[in-house]
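Batch job 17 of 40 flagged for manual review because the log was empty.
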Amino acid sequence: MTGSLDRLVKNRNALFWALQISGWLGYAITQYLGTLLYENKYEQMKGYTAVIVVAAVSGFLLSLELRYIFRRLWTLTPRAMIFGALLSCYLFALVWRVIINSAYLQFTSDSMEWVMKSPLEFFSNAMASTYLLLCWTALYFGFKYYDSLQTQREATLRAAALAQEAQLKMLRYQLNPHFLFNTLNAISTLILDSENRTANQAVMRLSEFLRYTLDQDPMKKVTLRQEIEAMNLYLTTEKLRFGQRLKLEFAIEERALDALVPSLLLQPLIENAVKFAVSASERGGPIRVEGRVRGAMLELAVADDGPGINTGAASGAGRGVGLRNTRERLAVLYGDNHRFASLDNKPGLRIELGLPLEMSAL
């Protein structure tokens, strides 16, 4: 029932017809019930039911004509719209009264008691009909104004969503060439060192990871488990470059694995640690990835034992484009409802993220 009502509200044309039919049907019923209060007179007016039907049908049809006029008035200035609506209601009320009074003379048994002294009497009670049409007009423009506000609100929300999506895609696509440049540079080094087999394996792993990134929508969220699997595709490529110099540690709670995160959230953070902590050191170093659930938040961390934050730089600013883009991406997705912190690990850098907890439905 609720679903049918929602569909009716969204279908503006169907909503108008439902209100139009029910409104004039209600008018006919109230007019009929009103005659029951005057039983003696009603007995003398056996044809008054026909008058009510004529009044309701003619009012229904005339208000449809008003609808088309009001559509044109809607595009005018407020003053012109109000003046045009008042004038239209009065003129249509005059026409309506002629129809009703003619039906009264035609169908009612006491019509002989009404002797018209002038044709102008066909317009009698025009003010009452004008008032009724004004009520119809107020409801029409009220719904019209509300619908206009809703349409503007929906357009604003769609524009904001499109802008958000465009910004996220820009941030993601800015990272992809950055990562690709680093990886191709590493493969080039392997070829120059005559490590062709290793270079070939690196190309294969790179193609698998790029296929995954191209299949992922920047707006889509995946489970942390899927994110770790994607990171393994990337880290397999890096392990071919660094061998035993790259040491990975994962400390992730079982419950956190089913939490949702933006796709490829960890890749720029891990790449950043590889570049500044592992690649810059002859002995390499460990990269630790942590994940846990704390209350209504999912807490993630990526830590290394590299040089840490550059002296005099903003938090993490010396660590490249990856941290900056990750911070901006989270700001677009979550607004103020997240946490991003770059901490000097002494030695190394620790990036901590706090995201609203969203669990996978699967």
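Reviewer: the log was empty due to a logging misconfiguration, but the result itself is present. The two ends are 29 Å apart (CA to CA). Unflagging and moving on to job 18.
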